[in-house]
Design a protein that fits this description.
Layout: E1 2-6, H1 14-22, E2 27-34, E3 41-49, H2 52-62, E4 66-67, E5 70-71, E6 73-76
Antiparallel strand pairs: 1-3, 1-6, 2-3, 4-5
């Protein structure tokens, strides 16, 4: 089960998150999201746990706890939305009169 961790300190490491979540069960992956341009953390992460029951225990045990001076928001991650062909946007063209 994939979990969303929000309101993270920019100083929190993957190792810290792994240790916190491992007290509730087996952690498959830890992924701290970083800015594409700067490489700096964006303040949230995803942790995948091997079973749903362990993930639910981690949510109830860690949501609202303080790590690096920030109160974590832990919840089930929502499915990723495909943003491949979003379309729209446009603009910038000149208005043409058809007189």
């Amino acid at each position: 089960m994939n979990l969303y961790i929000g309101n993270m300190s920019f100083d929190t490491t993957e190792d810290q998150l792994r240790k916190a979540f491992e007290s509730f069960g087996e952690v498959s992956t830890v992924n701290i999201i970083t800015d594409k341009n700067t490489g700096e953390p964006r303040g949230f992460a995803f942790v995948e746990m091997s079973t749903k029951s362990e993930a639910i225990a981690a949510i109830s045990g860690l949501n609202g706890t303080e790590v690096d001076g920030r109160e974590l928001k832990v919840s089930e991650a929502k499915p990723r939305v495909d943003r491949g062909n979003r379309g729209g946007g446009g603009g910038g063209g000149r208005y043409r009169n058809s007189y």
